[in-house]
Amino acid sequence: MPDKFAATWASHSSITDFLECPRAYYLKNVYRDPTTGHKMTLMAPSLALGQAVHSVLESLSVLPANERITLELLPKFRKEWENVAGEKGGFSGIDQEYRYKKRGEEMLARVYDNPGPLLNLAVKIKKDLLYYWLSEDEELILCGRIDWMEYLQEQDAVHIIDFKTGQKRAENSLQLPIYYLLAVNCQNRTVARASYWYLALDDAPAVLELPDAERARIKILDVARQMKLARQLKKFACPHGTCRACEPFERIVKGEGKLIGADDFRRDVYILPYVNDVDYAEEVIL
Fold first, then answer.
1. 286 residues of the chain, pLDDT tens digit each
2. How many helices (H) and strands (E) would you count in the chain?
3. Which of 33, 136, 150, 234 makes a 20 to 30 Å CA pair with 93?
4. How many other C-beta atoms are found inside a 10 Å radius of the C-beta of residue 194?
């Protein structure tokens, strides 16, 4: 029986890190602070915005469908914002924080006015983290969180919805294939539809073409194998010497970051001065 605690866990974020820069993958997913024994993460305004908006929307998923949009969402958002206000969200000042907070309020006002699929039945899996064995023999696990799964009653199927708090951009990542595989393997219904909902721009989710399950599995398995091999060989070199993905975390290791607390995953949360937020984090994926 494979040991899940000894396995290599792959997610959309860790796969993205590895493909962009193995050194960044190491610093974010493997390295532990010798003093605290914790992994680390870097907070930035865009991440703070995404965290607050997602927290509000996720809180709706546990409610019965007819109760989800009975109250205004903005009071919930303002309460959530307290968790990322000021330097906790990596904001450089009051003006920057105001702009991000206003964007979040506008997104949730849009959802309140156009709740669409959020008013329908939803499938809620009683796990904080979805995961399954991508390969038991190789001890590889695929894991992640899906923002929302609408229940399509007539088809007895699900509709995957991912909330986007950033701007539209070319989506050629493995995010959709990963979420598709998680939904297929972690619940019993057919996945009939998948969408991205750009909350700052669109009144409704944009439906995407579903990936081919076997092609997705093979591609993701290949990257997971590379990640496991890098861990075994302890080789995590940045292909550019240093890059925008690994450089902020190298600065934290050197002592330039400010520790502001720990998150729900017991990672040490840091902020850094003089980091261009747009450069390395345009949106959050939960």
1. 688 999 999 999 999 999 999 999 999 999 999 999 999 999 999 999 999 999 999 999 889 988 888 778 999 999 999 999 999 999 999 999 999 999 999 999 999 999 999 999 999 988 889 999 999 999 999 999 999 999 999 999 999 999 999 888 666 679 999 999 999 999 999 999 999 999 999 999 999 999 999 999 999 999 999 999 999 999 999 999 999 999 999 999 999 999 999 998 899 999 997 655 543 344 444 3
2. 9, 10
3. 33
4. 23
For 18, 156, 174, 215, 265, the CA distances from 211, given in Å and listed in that order, are: 22, 20, 10, 8, 30
For residues 100 and 90, what is the distance between their CA atoms, to the nearest angstrom? 11
pTM here is 0.91
Of 41, 62, 43, whose CA–CA distance to 52 is shortest?
43
Exposure b/e, 117-142, CB count within 10 A at least 16 = b: bbeeebbeeeeeebbeebbeeebbbb
CA distance 148 to 130: 13
Would you state the structure tokens that stand for residue 63, as one six-digit string? 């409610």
